[in-house]
Specification:
By secondary structure, this protein is an alpha/beta fold. Helix content is 35%, strand content 21%. The strands form 4 sheets. A 6-stranded mixed sheet has the order 3-8-7-6-4-5. A 5-stranded mixed sheet has the order 12-11-13-14-15, sandwiched between helices. Strands 1-2 form a two-stranded antiparallel sheet. Helix 1 runs antiparallel to helix 6. The relative contact order is 0.11.
Length: 390
């Protein structure tokens, strides 16, 4: 099949809509559901991301996509007991691909609500069972076990979108798109992100251990498929904060840093032991945790709202306690899809425990950026690779 009719375009009023191949067959098969325009944009972008993560790290990879940018991306690094609790999988023996998915979904659960999932490896029954309880629009993977496919076909009243990608498909070197009736053509961004791009380290601290190099590569590969400008924080094999589509790079750094802070704060003992009622739905629990962590906590706990989700009124996580907890964070890797124009980005990154940075370099203020890294003993690699994605 070389053509597929879609439900509609970006919006319901944009009909008709379809995808098609000028040469050959479509590289995917729809096993269940009917895709929309944005579904396929998310599916095809996210598949490229997880495929490249797997190629580079050798580990199964997963991504959680929303509106053509990742909300989360991860490889199969085993979870700590604390993260098992944070991700609601305590005591479960996870398969590698399930581990990658749990990490990707757990990075920013609020943004992942209603996501599109991508897996680098076959979707097994365990991963499908976890996905079945989440609010999600669809999944793309190279294969599905019979049990997994049966689980997914029963999701969303039988309308859950399941796509199988041909893993051997490689597109033409030139890509095209049309804007306002004007056709654009460019060479596909097939540059390989490898450890070679981390060799130039102009900072005083030149020590980037192997796990940090892995995390920097994960950050850069994630940025390759994220709407620019973009910045990505990575810790222990997973993105913990992604700032996408901002006009100012420092706003990307702040946005992603704030998300990374929430990820750290969710591991605080006070958060882990919040007295939730047993029947609280997962999305409501996630929202309550985000409010509890936020500055609006005082307002929430000052009303009767807490009675809806908690068995008793929890003690407040104070600003001082939050700052003290975040001060312990360290060892985070940060990637930027282009150069940092000012040292203020480094100042903000340092507040979220960033110890390693990879960015293209090339700013007239590179010296200021390097000096700021040296101030905090941050090791920074200049990749000389820009990763804009639009």
């Amino acid at each position: 099949m070389n053509e597929l009719e879609l439900k509609y375009g970006c919006n319901p009023n944009q009909k008709p809509a379809k995808v098609f191949m000028k040469k050959g067959e479509l590289p995917f098969t729809v096993l269940n559901g009917k895709p929309g325009y944005i579904n396929l944009l998310d599916a095809l972008n996210s598949w490229q991301l997880v495929r490249e993560l797997k190629e580079t790290t050798g580990l199964p990879a997963a991504a959680s996509f929303k509106h053509v940018s990742p909300a989360g991306a991860a490889v199969a690094v085993p979870l700590s007991t604390v993260l098992e609790q944070v991700y609601f999988v305590e005591g479960i023996d996870l398969s590698p691909i399930a581990t990658a998915y749990i990490r990707a979904r757990g990075a920013d659960r609020m943004s992942s609500y209603g996501d599109f999932v991508a897996l680098s490896d076959e979707c097994d029954a365990q991963t499908a069972s976890f996905l079945a309880r989440e609010v999600s629009d669809g999944i793309i993977a190279p294969a599905y076990s019979e049990a997994a496919l049966e689980i997914l076909k029963n999701k969303r009243k039988g309308n859950y979108l399941v796509i199988q990608i041909n893993p051997s498909y490689d597109p033409e070197p030139l890509e095209h798109k049309q804007v306002f009736g004007v056709c654009f053509e460019q060479k596909r961004n097939d540059i390989k992100i490898t450890e070679e791009c981390l060799q130039e380290i102009p900072t005083q601290n030149k020590d980037i251990p192997a796990p940090a190099k892995r995390d920097l590569l994960i950050a850069l590969i994630t940025l390759k498929y994220t709407q620019s400008n973009s910045v990505c924080y990575v810790k222990d094999g997973q993105a913990i904060g992604i700032g996408a589509g901002q006009q100012s790079r420092v706003h990307c750094t702040r946005l992603a840093g704030n998300k990374a802070d929430v990820w750290y704060l969710r591991q605080n003992p006070k958060v882990l032991h919040l007295p939730f009622k047993k029947d609280i739905r997962r999305p409501d629990r996630d929202n309550a945790i985000d409010v509890y962590i936020s500055d609006e906590c005082m307002d929430l706990l000052g009303t009767e709202d807490w009675k809806r989700v908690f068995t008793e009124k929890p003690s407040i996580l104070t600003k001082e306690e939050k700052m003290s907890w975040l001060h312990k964070s360290a060892g985070t890797a940060l990637g930027s899809d282009a150069f940092f124009p000012f040292g203020d980005n480094i100042e903000r990154a340092h507040k979220s425990g960033v110890s390693y940075i990879a960015q293209s370099g090339g700013s007239i203020r590179d010296d200021n950026v390097i000096e700021t890294c040296d101030k905090y003993k941050i090791a920074m690699a200049m990749t000389h690779i820009r990763l804009f994605h639009h």
